[in-house]
Amino acid sequence: MQETAKPGDARFFRRTGPHSLGQIAALLGTQTTAPERLIHGVAPLQSAGPEDVSFLDNRRYADLLSATKAGAVILHPDFAGSVPEGCEALVTSEPYVGWAKISALFHPFPEAAAGRHPAAIIDPSAVIDPSAEIGPGAVVAAGAEIGAGTSIGALAYVGPGVVIGKNCRIHPQATVSHAILGNRVVLYPGARVGQDGFGFAISKTGFTPVPQLGRVLIGDGAEIGANTTIDRGSAQDTVIGPGVHIDNLVQIGHNVNIGANAVIVAQAGVSGSTQIGPGVMIAAQAGLTGHLNIGAGARIGAQSGVMQDVPAGEEVLGAPAQNAKAFFREVLTLRKLAQNARKGPKTGN
């Protein structure tokens, strides 16, 4: 078994640096007492060395701080006094955000390598910026538009008329049809965007398919996880707002509208025509029926079954989903009833 390596294996990740603590501190919006000191990489507290920067965001790992050999640590002001000698404290109110910025400084996200692979299949009417990258086996159909700095991965499919903005990353084997994507959109491998919604009319003789005539609109900076599916609208559009992050293996039905910066976690499913407000968080394996309105900032717990509207800012749990406080009261009541049943009835002398 190989020894555990530090993050950023050079076989898989591009590396920059070294970078000075002054540069790192400026990116974090904080101060340092050693601006000229060079840092060569990022690493967790337990494996970082004197040339690495690490971070602490969770109190559960606070005991690792006193023993770390890191050259610098990004941390909350509450932990600044616990940094060992020789380690520079980079204090910020949002350590994990800081860690994301500094990790991206040392290991930038991949950039498009301008050009078209000879094995790509590109319709002559497609409009592709010269700085875009089209990978082997990728298909770009008639009338599609690919923006500057965008990469289309191997075996990906971009359907007729699809518009993809600037600096997007369409990973291998993703498919996009009937869709317009903004800038900096990421589709991870196997994502399916723009296929028919689950729409049909039911009669005594069976099912009659209803043409799905809408599109999928995806806002700037949205990310769509691996093997996630987003159906196009029926008569309206399916809308994924700017900054939305959707995890792997999520199903989004036709005509769903998701507000800016919402988060949907793995294996959740949202049925058609549901409206999800900005900043909503939907946890893993939650299921939402159709035509609901989920208010801004609402939180839906894991494995919840949501069958009615959720007010803005409310947290719901359970199946059927209900207010979190009411849910926990019921759980506690059931637990007490079960405990009493196990003890049996009291008997007199």
Uncertain runs are none
Q: Estimate nothing, just give the exact number of structural domains.
A: 2
Major sheet: arrangement of strands: 7-10-13-16-19-24-27-30-33-36-38-39
The global form is flat
Report the radius of gyration as a whole number of Å. 25 Å
Please name the CATH architecture of the largest domain: 3 Solenoid
Tally of DSSP helical segments = 3
Helix amount, in percent? 10-25%
CATH top level of the largest domain is: Mainly Beta
Q: CATH-wise, what's the superfamily of the largest domain? A: Hexapeptide repeat proteins
Strand content: 25-35%
Major β-sheet annotation: 12 strands, mixed
Structural class: alpha/beta
According to CATH, the fold-level topology of the largest domain is: UDP N-Acetylglucosamine Acyltransferase, domain 1
Tally the beta strands. Answer: 39
Q: What gap, in angstroms, lies between the N and C termini?
A: 66 Å
Mean pLDDT: 94
Overview of this protein structure:
- The protein is α/β, with parallel strands linked by helices.
- 11% of the residues lie in helices and 27% in strands.
- The strands form six sheets. A twelve-stranded mixed β-sheet has the order 7-10-13-16-19-24-27-30-33-36-38-39.
- Strand 21 (200-203) and strand 22 form a beta hairpin.
- The model has no long low-confidence stretch (mean pLDDT 94).
